[in-house]
């Protein structure tokens, strides 16, 4: 793995970000082995696979490019024009590299500015490996402050939905989260009630609470299924509008209970009383992370320390006890650093752009779907996981179908997608797409993570065995006593007859 670091150059003028790549050497980084990019960016770049060779590329608007996006191709580190768009990119952007057209090939989502200066979105479809303009989407009219777009299968139908947090006034006294379902341009509010015990909370307006580095943190949702019910939840940082308290809160994905969210069928509900999370004051960023590699998403919170220039990282273990199931999927690049030895399957590293979808049957016999994109966003503290954890709820059934798709190069018409069947729940699947152009030859390695029910079953089995052994022992002891008694009676009868 290599590391791309963006930085503010000394005596920088305006919006100018430099970038340097530290090249990985096995499990270490050599600080002397680095490449400083010869161009600067107007905003943080997006890591994507622009040409479908499964080598990460760097996408962004560079200074001197006339406002048109450029791409630095990985491998040979050459600059090329990426797209020709009529709009300027919004700063901060929430560009994404994710499948939005349901063809298992990642498309390009751009956040731009309209002619009037308002935020809007562009979807550039991936057609035969080339990006072409597809559609345009405007932000909800009620939003005055627009946050960072997030993508998740919000309603569990197997399609990627668009989540957009923001504020309906400039001071964020009225905050909201809107949802645009896959393939639609209609915005539906999924959370507008931010009141709790007489206090009104809301998102932190960007620019008012900068980090010590003076880089503002935009309004961001970090997505993850903390209770593994198959519906992704979120973490958000909220501020008390009548005070200075700023905390991270868990937003649980629950069925819709009011008329405003009927179009989405589900909504977010704020968990106000999570004791450990509420004890972390002055939170700046909160995200999910599987600390124990057990498929259960824990929480990491970045907060201010005792002084304003200090930052502290808090790790909170997820103690969710319900025995729900999951599948954890990691899609690698399937590349070697040089020519692969014979009969050796290359692993490679985690890759931006793969798309995962599953179908199964829940405990009630209903068809259940779920989907996720891997490493679709990388800028402005997106902090996405390098794998996808898909919750399955309490259904212990095998996954009927699991589909994995990867980007394809220019001119290739065939979709690079492979299907696996009968995947065991509570397992980690490592997908190696090698060779890239032959999905039927792709391999997958399955690692099992036993759940609590396995331990309970073992305890129950041992308990039953001990109980049966106790009964057998008691019966054997009674039979032995009866035999001894009978032998004594026989011996007594023999001596009596002899007399």
From TrEMBL:
Keywords attached to this entry: Glycoprotein, Integrin, Membrane, Transmembrane, Transmembrane helix
Entry-linked InterPro entries: C2_TIP, Integrin_alpha_N, Tip
SUPFAM superfamilies for the chain: Integrin alpha N-terminal domain
Subcellular location: Membrane
Transmembrane spans: 453-477
Predominant location category: membrane
A GO term from the CC aspect: plasma membrane
A Pfam family reported for this protein in Swiss-Prot or TrEMBL: C2_ITFG1
T-cell immunomodulatory protein TIP C2 domain ranges (all copies): 346-447
Topology of this chain in the membrane: Single-pass type I membrane protein
Gene Ontology biological process terms from the UniProt entry: integrin-mediated signaling pathway
Family, similarity comment: Belongs to the TIP family.
UniProt-recorded name of the protein: Integrin alpha FG-GAP repeat containing 1
């Amino acid at each position: 793995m290599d590391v791309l670091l963006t930085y503010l150059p000394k005596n920088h003028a305006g919006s100018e970000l430099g970038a340097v790549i530290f090249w990985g050497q096995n499990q270490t980084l050599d600080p002397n082995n680095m490449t400083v990019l010869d161009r600067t960016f107007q905003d943080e770049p997006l890591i994507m696979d622009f040409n479908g060779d499964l080598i990460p590329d760097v996408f962004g608007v560079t200074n001197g490019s006339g406002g048109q996006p450029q791409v630095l191709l990985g491998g040979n580190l050459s600059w090329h024009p990426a797209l020709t768009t009529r709009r300027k990119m919004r700063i901060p952007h929430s560009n994404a590299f994710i499948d939005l057209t349901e063809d298992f090939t990642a498309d390009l989502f751009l956040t731009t500015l309209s002619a009037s200066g308002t935020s809007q979105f562009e979807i550039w479809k991936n057609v035969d490996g080339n990006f072409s303009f597809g559609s345009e989407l405007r932000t909800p009219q009620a939003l005055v402050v627009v946050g960072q777009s997030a993508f998740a299968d919000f309603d569990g139908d197997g399609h990627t939905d668009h989540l957009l947090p923001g504020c309906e006034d400039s001071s964020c006294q009225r905050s909201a989260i809107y949802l645009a379902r896959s393939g639609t341009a209609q915005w539906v509010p999924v959370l507008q009630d931010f009141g709790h015990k007489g206090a009104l909370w809301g998102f932190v307006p960007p620019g008012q609470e900068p980090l010590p580095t003076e880089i503002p943190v935009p309004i961001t949702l970090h997505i993850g299924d903390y209770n593994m019910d198959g519906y992704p939840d979120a973490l958000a940082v909220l501020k008390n509008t009548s005070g200075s308290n700023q905390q991270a809160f868990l937003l649980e994905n629950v069925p819709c209970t009011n008329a405003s969210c009927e179009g989405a069928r589900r909504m977010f509900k704020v968990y106000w009383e999570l004791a450990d999370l509420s004890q972390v004051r002055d939170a700046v960023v909160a995200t999910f992370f599987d600390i124990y590699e057990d498929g259960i998403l824990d929480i990491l919170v970045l907060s201010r320390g005792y002084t304003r220039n200090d930052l502290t990282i808090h790790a909170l273990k997820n103690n969710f006890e319900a025995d729900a199931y999951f599948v954890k999927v990691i899609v690698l690049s399937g590349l070697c650093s040089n020519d692969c030895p014979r009969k050796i399957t290359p692993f490679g590293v985690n890759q931006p752009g793969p798309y995962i979808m599953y179908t199964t049957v829940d405990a009630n016999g209903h068809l259940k779907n779920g989907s996720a994109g891997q490493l679709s966003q990388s800028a402005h503290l997106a902090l996405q996981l390098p794998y996808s954890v898909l919750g399955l709820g309490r259904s212990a059934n095998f996954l009927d179908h699991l589909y994995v798709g990867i980007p394809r190069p220019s001119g290739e018409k065939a979709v690079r997608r492979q299907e696996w069947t009968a995947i065991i729940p509570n397992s980690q699947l490592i997908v190696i797409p090698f060779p890239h152009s032959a999905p039927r030859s792709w391999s997958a390695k399955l690692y099992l993570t036993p759940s609590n029910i396995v331990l309970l079953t073992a305890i129950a089995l041992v308990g039953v065995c001990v109980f049966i052994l106790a009964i057998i022992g008691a019966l054997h002891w009674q039979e032995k006593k009866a035999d001894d008694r009978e032998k004594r009676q026989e011996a007594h009868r023999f001596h009596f007859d002899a007399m």
